[in-house]
Amino acid sequence: MIIRKTMLQDIDKIVAIEEASFSAPFDRRMFQGMIIASPPFGGFVLENDGVISGYLFYSIALDEMELLTIAVDEKFRRKGYAKRLIEEMFRLAREKNAKSIFLEVRVSNSGAQSLYKSFGFLPAGVRKAYYRDNGEDAIVMKRNF
After folding, report:
1. Is the CATH code 3.40.630.30 the one for domain 2-144?
2. Order of strands across the sheet with 2-5?
3. Per-residue pLDDT tens digits for 114-137
4. What is the rounded distance in angstroms from the CA atom of residue 34 to the CA atom of residue 43?
5. Predicted pLDDT of residue 132
6. Which one of 30, 94, 116, 119 has the fewest beta carbons within 10 angstroms of its own beta carbon?
7. 116 catalytically annotated
8. Is the predicted pLDDT of residue 51 greater than 90, yes or no?
9. Is the entire prediction scored with pTM above 0.85?
10. Annotated catalytic residue: which of 47, 64, 104, 136?
11. How far apart are CA 120 and CA 142, in angstroms?
């Protein structure tokens, strides 16, 4: 298993995982833009024997990082891959001297909230009607270093 920086040739697999994972997925152009506009955007893929199993995208500005999206292919879930991706984001955050990381998560996504809490993220606010597919609120979570 390796974690490496995202590349444009990863887009097809990233989009496939994104569309299978979320009801309001990022589209191909968004991923292309994040890969091309690095920095302030960046991403990692996790590969197993050359197969992309998951990814994480972030943005970083000054001393603040935002986790934009993270997903693991359904065939590879419950193996700790999301944790590995978050650990890599933390490594980069420390390298870049980020003082905090924040993210948004659906109020209904208790599994993701538990994962983030296990990494020290705490609720910091609510974005009302944040998700365009159903108007669901998002919990803003933040972790300080």
Report:
1. yes
2. 2-5, 41-48, 51-61, 64-72, 100-106, 138-144, 122-127
3. 999 999 999 999 999 998 888 999
4. 8
5. 84
6. 94
7. yes
8. yes
9. yes
10. 104
11. 8
Q: How far apart are CA 1 and CA 47, in angstroms?
A: 6
Buried residues in 13-48 as b, exposed as e (16+ CB within 10 A): bbbebbeebeeebbeeebbeebbeeeeebbbbbbbe
Residue 104 bears catalytic tag: yes
Beta pairing partners, 70: 56
Q: Are strands 2-5 and 51-61 parallel, antiparallel or unpaired?
A: unpaired
pLDDT tens digits along 89-113: 999 999 999 999 999 999 999 999 9
Say if CB 41 and CB 34 are below 8 A apart: yes
CA-nearest of 61, 20, 25, 68 to 43 is 68
Domain boundaries, the chain: 2-144
